[in-house]
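Example (one chain per record):
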Amino acid sequence: MLGSPAPVRTWKHRPGSSEHSEALVSARRAPQHLRGPTRAWWRAVVAEYELDEHHERLLSLAAGAWDRCEQAREALAEHGLVFTDRHGGVKPRPEVAIERDSRIAFARLIRELDLDGEPGPEPRPPRRS
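Predicted structure:
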């Protein structure tokens, strides 16, 4: 219905001592393409919150975006922010855009997951071109 506020999402924390919930968490594996620290973060979030399958996919996408941002940042630290093209012009390295886009994607996916469960500002409709 247009004009009505979106429902506030609240995540349930997993019970701490339930063997059943721990078995469910251990059955789910973090995506193997993620770096070690990011995989550990993924597992920590899945252990702390009861996520539906589609939310786990969003979490996996967010984790992948974080890793891509870190890869681009490392490449920029090694190679610098700019390069000189064949005509002598100074251009930003492609990793600048990769880092920016990955950071934005991560922030949007985390906002979409709304793991805080705190009421935030009104959701924004997608921007139209």
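Caption: The longest strand covers residues 82-84.
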